[in-house]
Amino acid sequence: MSAVLFGSIGTLAETSEIQREAFNDAFRAHGLDWHWERADYLAMLRESGGRDRIAGYAAQQGTEVDADAVHRSKSQAFQKLLATSGLTPRPGVVDTIAAARDAGVKVGLVTTTSRENIDALLDVLGPDVRRADFDVVVDTSEVSAPKPDAAAYVHALDALGERAGDCVAIEDNGDGVTAAAAAGVPCVAFPGANTADHGFSDARSVVDRLDPADLLPGR
């Protein structure tokens, strides 16, 4: 095993409900009478891409919106909410990163979210999880297509100089698992509270906490 690749900020901390709250804050800021309940949002999470969720929902409602502008407001709201969230790392994350570093195994964060969202989360999780813990951090500005496309993983593997089969990915949603599989990276599904019902047939296993002994066999 040469690298452990965390596939989204949701693999590091439970951010999904904060994301939903940020969407609703953005809708209010733009004068939209929309409110996504948790049940609505669970269905939307089967496909990646916040901007596309907004555009798709607007089309369903027969409403014209500037999806890019609403999504920018959502990202700003998300970052503000994170700052006061008191979030902590998900079970096993800190131990997995520490074990990988101790064993000389590279660690990556392979997302298709913005650099600002990543920085905001790591500010909250520090010092338990820090930017310096990662040998590569991939954000949306560095990839040609969002997940389930393999582009983010291809970019990370190139940056690390590692072969897909020598790495393991950790993903919390179905599109992420599909992206890892498309890049040839074995994947462990680590679903969050809002993604537990996603399909994970391409994952080698589904876990509710990370175990360094499983992710780093023989280390």
Q: What is the share of helical residues? A: 40-55%
What fraction of residues sit in β-strands? 5-15%
Question: How many helix segments?
Answer: 9
CATH topology name of the largest domain: Rossmann fold
Looking at the overall shape, the CATH architecture of the largest domain is 3-Layer(aba) Sandwich
Strand order in space, largest sheet: 3-2-1-4-5-6
- Give the uncertain stretches in residue-range form: none
Radius of gyration, in angstroms, nearest whole number? 17 Å
CATH superfamily of the largest domain: HAD superfamily/HAD-like
CATH class of the largest domain: Alpha Beta
**Order of helical and strand elements:** EHHHHHEHEHEHEEH
Oligomeric form of this entry? single chain
Structural class: alpha/beta
Protein name: HAD-IA family hydrolase
Keywords: Hydrolase
InterPro entries: CbbY-like (IPR044999), HAD-like_sf (IPR036412), HAD-SF_hydro_IA (IPR006439), HAD_sf (IPR023214), PGP-like_dom2 (IPR023198)
GO molecular function, one term: hydrolase activity
